[in-house]
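Fold it.
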Amino acid sequence: MRARNPLYVMAKPPPEVQAQIIALPRNDPGRGPELLHVTLISLYDLHAAPPEWLPATIAALDGFAAAPFPLRFDRIENRKAVTLRTRGSLAEARAFQKALADHLLHEKAPIMDGTTPEPHITINYRGDRLGSQTLNTLKLPPIGWTVDEIILTESIVGKTTHVEHGRWLLRGGVG
């Protein structure tokens, strides 16, 4: 059964990066820029979770420390959806995801799903069958930013809505 209210830790691009993404020819113009994000870890379905899980997750994130890390995307790919991806190294982002998952496990926070997908941004959930292309072929530079904040976000499936449950600045080393 599909989750009704999946809870994620995500990173959202700043407004100037959102503007670059919205301008891409394969972006779905029907979705607002506030919905653009990179899922860092999938946690659980908030709809089915016991009421104590959300406060426990927030408390665990309150104790998490990590340094900012770069994200950079240089390709548009059509898989099940149209996404921004990279062939470059995601080593820092993947190390961040591992540190976050390890911290949540150490703190005994609920992470029923606990998956850390390869960082990407979905720009069109319908797909367009146009295959893959580099941003360079579109005469565009790579799109990226330094992630300096993570957001605990509930997605309301079928409503194209995100509900924010907390934000944490990334300032220090992984702790």
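The longest strand covers residues 161-169.
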